Fold this protein.
Amino acid sequence: MVNTPITVARGNGIGPEIMDATLEILKAAGARLDIDEIEIGEDVYKRGCMTGIEDHAWETLRKNKIFLKAPIFTPMGGGFKSLNVTVRKTLGLYANVRPCRSFHPFVQTHHPEMDIVIVRENEEDLYGGIEYKYTPNVTESIKLISRQGSERICRYAFEYAKANGRKKVTCMVKDNIMKISDGLFYETFQEIAAEYPEIESERYIVDIGAARIASRPEDFDVIVTENLYGDIVSDIAAEVTGSVGLGISANIGDEFAMFEAMHGTAPDIAGQGIANPSGLLLGAVMMLVHIGQGDVAETVHNAWLKTIEDGIHTGDLYKEDTSKKRVGTDEFKKAVIERIGQKPSQLKAVSYSDSTGALTMPPLKERKDVQRELVGTDIFVYAKDKDVGVLASEVQPLVREGFHLSMISNRGVKMWPGQKPESLCSEMWRLRFRGKTGPRRVAQQITDLADAGFDIVKTHNLYEFDGEPAYSKAQGE
Ligand code: NAD
């Protein structure tokens, strides 16, 4: 059988220790791999490369397509880019898959039945990195949600559920507040769910959903959610399984995939030979399934389960009543290798023999065109220490024919017309002009305000799609 080429990065902190252990176990289990190593992270940043990854490393990643990565250190501040985010975005790794399973009674947890997989959208949302500072005291971060991105991740969750014998997919959103962006995500989820009638689907508002993961994780199966919510709920889920050392993170795209442990470089224990290599090893198991080596994945995973069941635990898992032997990284690795070919007797053994490798995703749906009409514009101005009544009286004479000034808001709260609420005001005001006047008039209105000395910091056009408003109302509007 032919070997699969993969790229490996040993990373920083405990990275090299856990990667050595992982690769030795894979080799002992007969993994059919050709490994190219790249250097990324701390030393690369120190050489002045702001992204932590150099051009020749990209070439290797693009050639091999599969990446097994140890944790890396990202310097805070100083303009350095997060390498994890850079790799995910550059290689189009849109799905972040994080299985969180209980290994009760061998790893202490209050939730023995828990077995969740979180599918997190990996490219959009507030992680688009689209941020602005408009005035000295007002900033904005854009939460970008597209139908294409939502469709792809929701479908991935259902396809994952189907391929892995899962029964239910839960969507977590906050569409009661973010009706347009989270509303789109949930609407798309419902559309995709209808194509998989054999799989149950449900929705949770993310705040109560996160609380429920902490208190009753056994109620969930597969969870699909946006980027930021996914970041938070997967950390909660990993925490309640009982150990950060066991969390896995698979990042999947159409062409490329990256597998890693969920934890970081653990600088407090680096170089001591005591780190738990399990997160990275289980990430490597997911990689083997992905590249069609389900046989080796099954061997490695079952040997690992048997080791855990035999009470051979690294310090992060060790408890007097559930563990038999406290071991370091090297001894743990040897214990797993000794158990190759064995299966656990109490923990459920895994089977990947039917696995068909990477999920095949259909192309995105064709979408019918919608009628889009320009119905006004929001013009944001910087006006320090301004009374809203005075501001309105200065703007009104400048309102062009075909428009009317329908409201002025501050921090999303309507301030004019009508009674002014007791809300704090910043120096950035939103002037809402309504009128179906066409784009030229909108541009002229902006010019008129600028000519009159208004300091315009941004504008947003208001549209209707098929006659439905495609913008939010201000609080109180
Ligand atoms: P961390 O996950 O490195 O450590 C948190 C705690 O968990 C520490 O007490 C650590 O000793 C323990 N721990 C983590 N992994 C362990 C393991 N395998 N075995 C035993 N104990 C383990 O989180 P942190 O301290 O917040 O971050 C440290 C560094 O890691 C930061 O520079 C951060 O940027 C980086 N980081 C990288 C990644 C990644 O590359 N994917 C992810 C998270 C953090």
